[in-house]
């Protein structure tokens, strides 16, 4: 418990103040055995990774550490089963707190499928409580607010990584619990809570639009045109309102004379949150475009959707290019490309801020009694989802290449997100795109059609499935493209059934032993053989 109180409790929240980890979890450990055992197991896993020890390493001390974590995990599960039986309000809270700890524990272990299973179970319990006792679960009660906030964060993280963890209706139910302030943000956490509510509504709208497109994992019924248009307009207005409230308050702050570690984290959070606002705008525009493609909305309204979330610099670039006829080489960028260009520029500023000598020095001396944390892991949001989205959704190859290269600058983990896994997926996605571009008339790969199955262990398999829904409508037995990456071997194993022959890439220098990186594909240093 000493490690948790001195290290884990400060590491997991990341740049934002998260009362679930710093207040609620330690308090619940005092009176609830299930929470205590789950926390001890979490701390043991974090300690192993902070010391740079890999799972399964052989030594008497390390084996004992593994056994300790397993014993605590088992005891937590046993106590939780006994506690859930009485079906009381407090038991539900204990179950949710323990479940959240289990989710992060499994993510740290690299057992993502187990973590997602815990998350789905927790969201099921949370939804039951929200529908059964909405007044008690409302955010006025601090404990309930902290529980709801941590599950909202984990849900958004998982959904951004293409994982389905709940029914679409729960997105709306959760967003209703994150009530935004009236006129101004009094803290970074208030601004983040308001932005998370918008993200959840975008994800709900995306699920409805995907259902209309017949994407995998979605319902069969498609949304009506009127309701989709009203929802899109409401989200656009809220994005614009969020930006105005941010600029009135937290967006303009004076630089303090002395930068303590806490102040540096606050500055980082203030830089990060507007980037997530831009990402929300991009995802909203993509969702609205998908709805228009499927007949749910008029294309004529698409150009106005970006007005509510473009930053001042982005707006000036968009406006300067609007309404003019230009050659192809001078053609105006689409709003998504413009937004991602700004996003990547801001991420590079953030990286320089995080890697500055003063920040590195303070990080080294933050804990004088023990070695530096080698886990490079937090439970909260960071820049990995932003870079991943840019590498997958942006139309500009240079921006996508910049995003992927930034993955390699420093290994990092943020909840379910692992930068090493994210870059593997992003590069494979670009390689598939490049293969398809060789064949005229081939279907453009849509990221929404790609299913990602994360590894169930550090030595497990990462599986990508690309499903052609048009072919499936014609023939339910139509094959899917399947790609398997072996985490223990660090390479792609096999490729599933394809309608086109597999392309083999060779470098002009004669190197045929590895696949091309995204940068090499973009720079045309590889050719098809």
From TrEMBL:
InterPro entries: Fun_TF (IPR021858), Transcr_Regulatory_Proteins (IPR052360). Keywords: DNA-binding, Metal-binding, Nucleus, Transcription, Transcription regulation, Zinc. It holds the Pfam family Fungal_trans_2. It comes from the Eukaryota. One of its GO terms (molecular function) is metal ion binding. This is Transcription factor domain-containing protein. It comes from Exophiala mesophila. The lineage of its organism: Eukaryota, Fungi, Dikarya, Ascomycota, Pezizomycotina.
């Amino acid at each position: 418990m000493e490690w948790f109180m001195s290290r884990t409790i400060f590491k997991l929240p990341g740049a934002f103040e998260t009362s679930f980890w710093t207040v609620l979890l330690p308090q619940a450990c005092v009176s609830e055995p299930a929470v205590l055992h789950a926390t001890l197991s979490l701390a043991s896993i974090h300690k192993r990774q902070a010391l740079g020890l890999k799972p399964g390493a052989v030594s008497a001390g390390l084996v004992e550490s593994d056994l300790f974590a397993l014993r605590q995990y088992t005891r937590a599960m046993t106590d939780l089963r006994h506690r859930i039986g009485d079906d009381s309000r407090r038991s539900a809270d204990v179950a949710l707190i323990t479940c959240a700890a289990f989710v992060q524990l499994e993510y740290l272990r690299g057992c993502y499928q187990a973590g997602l299973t815990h998350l789905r179970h927790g969201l099921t319990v949370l939804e039951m409580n929200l529908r059964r006792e909405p007044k008690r679960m409302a955010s006025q009660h601090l404990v309930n607010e902290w529980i709801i906030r941590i599950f909202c964060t984990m849900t958004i993280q998982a959904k951004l990584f293409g994982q389905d963890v709940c029914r679409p209706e729960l997105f709306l139910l959760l967003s209703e619990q994150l009530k935004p302030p009236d006129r101004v943000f009094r803290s970074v956490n208030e601004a983040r809570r308001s932005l998370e509510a918008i993200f959840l509504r975008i994800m709900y709208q995306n699920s409805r639009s995907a259902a209309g497109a017949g994407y995998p994992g979605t319902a069969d019924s498609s949304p009506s045109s009127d309701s989709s248009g009203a929802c899109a307009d409401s989200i656009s207005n809220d994005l614009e309102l969020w930006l105005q409230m941010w600029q009135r308050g937290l967006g303009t702050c004076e630089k303090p004379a002395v930068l303590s570690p806490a102040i540096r984290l606050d500055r980082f959070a203030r830089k990060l949150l507007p980037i997530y606002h831009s990402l929300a705008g991009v995802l909203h525009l993509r969702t609205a475009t998908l709805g228009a493609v499927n007949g749910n909305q008029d294309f004529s309204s698409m150009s106005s959707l970006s007005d509510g979330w473009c930053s001042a610099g982005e707006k000036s670039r968009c406006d300067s290019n609007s309404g003019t006829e230009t050659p192809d080489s001078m053609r105006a960028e689409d709003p998504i490309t413009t937004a991602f260009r700004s996003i990547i520029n801001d991420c590079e500023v953030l990286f320089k801020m995080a890697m500055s000598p003063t920040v590195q020095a303070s990080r080294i001396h933050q804990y004088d009694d023990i070695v530096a944390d080698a886990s490079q892991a937090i439970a909260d949001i960071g820049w990995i989802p932003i870079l991943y989205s840019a590498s997958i959704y942006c139309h500009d190859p240079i921006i996508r290449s910049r995003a992927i290269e930034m993955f390699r600058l420093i290994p990092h983990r943020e909840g379910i997100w692992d930068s090493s896994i994210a870059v593997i997926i992003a590069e494979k996605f670009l390689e598939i795109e490049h293969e398809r571009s060789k064949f005229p008339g081939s279907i453009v790969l849509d990221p929404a059609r790609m299913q990602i199955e994360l590894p169930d262990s550090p030595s497990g398999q990462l599986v990508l499935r690309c499903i052609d829904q048009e072919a499936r409508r014609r023939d339910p037995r139509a094959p899917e493209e399947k790609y398997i990456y072996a985490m223990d071997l660090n390479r792609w194993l096999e490729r599933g059934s394809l309608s086109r022959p597999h392309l083999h890439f060779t470098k002009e220098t004669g190197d045929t032993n590895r696949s091309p990186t995204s940068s090499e594909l973009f720079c045309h240093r590889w050719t098809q053989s």
